[in-house]
Amino acid sequence: MIKKGMIATLVFILMFALVGCGGSTEKTTSKEQKKKITVVTNPSFAPFEYMDKGEIVGFDIDLLKAVMDEAGLEYELKGIGWDPLFAAIQGKTADMAVSGITINDDRKKTYDFSIPYFESTHMILVKEGSSIKSAKDLQGKVVGVQNGTTGQEAVEKILGKENKNIKKFEDTVVAIMDLLNGGVEAVVTDNAVANEYIKNNPDAKIVAFEDPDHFESEFYGFMFPKGSELKQKVDEALKKVIENGTYTEIYKKWFGTEPNIESLQQ
Ligand code: ARG
């Protein structure tokens, strides 16, 4: 009798423990899923991210959605400035940034990056008929760049870091406006952004060209605070999205051509 009673009690305790455990695991998962990830972007960089009828849209934004859906992660997207974006990731007030951000060694010291998702190079934008035909011709000219970008670095390499002729703008769009107004004689920015501007503003009489001798190819990635656990989840999802054709669809929607996926994987 005593034995039976003990076994019954044991079984009861065991069942209770199992049910209890199951319950608590469930609770943590739903809590984790509810915690929205804050993603920041600087939406003045068409076609990657820009404002359209009060909404942030673009190639990066579609890719972000595909990746987060694939990873099963909920997120909230916030438009902020370019410099504040880096501050937010460094200070961990945001979990992730997408903004046509070039992965480079200097940034890698402070931030973590996903695997690359886009290959880019720089272009020089000038007014039609300009005497500037190559990066070398930028010598002695007033050149506009977005402050804190790899475009600024590229120009500094050519003109020298302290050169007063390098005019720094908070936004790429504002730099291009200044070119139209004659404030600068050239703007150096990412090739897809230069091409998009020309396509959308055929009457602006602006042309753009590359200079492979001076501008190297670079790659964009999603950016995270150093040591972020999100990186691995996002990398896995991004890999899937690239392999399953979703990336190609998004790329074609925004650029009208097939992506060179191999260049991303090398
Ligand atoms: N790719 C360049 C960089 O990382 C420019 C990116 C600017 N992006 C933006 N949303 N304004 O420096």
Distance, first to last CA: 72 Å
Bound molecules: arginine
Strand proportion, as a percent range, falls in 15-25%
Instruction: Estimate the mean pLDDT confidence.
Output: 91
Query: So what's the overall shape?
Result: elongated
Structural class: alpha/beta
Strand order of the largest sheet: 11-10-12-9-13
Helix content range: 40-55%
What radius of gyration results from the CA coordinates? Answer: 24 Å
Would you report the number of β strands? Answer: 15
SSE topology string: HEEEEHEHEHEEEEHEHEHEEEHHH
Q: Poorly predicted ranges (pLDDT <50, ≥5 residues)?
A: 18-28
Can you offer a commentary on this structure?
- With 266 residues, this protein is α/β, with parallel strands linked by helices.
- It has helices at residues 2-34, 59-71, 82-90, 105-108, 150-159, 172-180, 191-200, 230-243, 246-255, 261-265; strands at 37-41, 44-45, 49-52, 55-57, 75-79, 96-97, 111-113, 118-120, 122-127, 143-146, 166-169, 186-190, 206-210, 218-220, 223-225.
- The strands form five sheets. Strands 11-10-12-9-13 form a five-stranded mixed sheet, sandwiched between helices. A three-stranded parallel sheet has the order 5-1-6. The chain has a three-stranded antiparallel sheet with strand order 2-3-4.
- Strand 3 and strand 4 form a beta hairpin.
- Helix 2 crosses helix 8 (230-243) and helix 2 (59-71) runs antiparallel to helix 9.
- The termini are far apart.
- Mean pLDDT is 91; it is low at 18-28.
- Arginine (ARG) binds next to loops.
